[in-house]
Design a protein that fits this description.
This is Phospholipase A2. With 39 residues, the chain is an all-alpha fold. Helix content is 28%, strand content 0%. 21% of the residues are buried.
């Protein structure tokens, strides 16, 4: 399975977000990871 950093839904292998707008507790960090995943 995917390993995601606690407090985020996008930082790590894959993501655990239900949709693109869901970020988790650490929103600024997750936003950066989400943008990077889209590269």
């Amino acid at each position: 399975g995917a390993t995601i950093m606690p407090g985020t839904l996008w930082c790590g292998k894959g993501n655990s977000a239900a949709d693109y707008l869901q970020l988790g507790v650490w929103k600024d960090t997750a936003h950066c990871c989400r943008d990077h995943d889209g590269c």
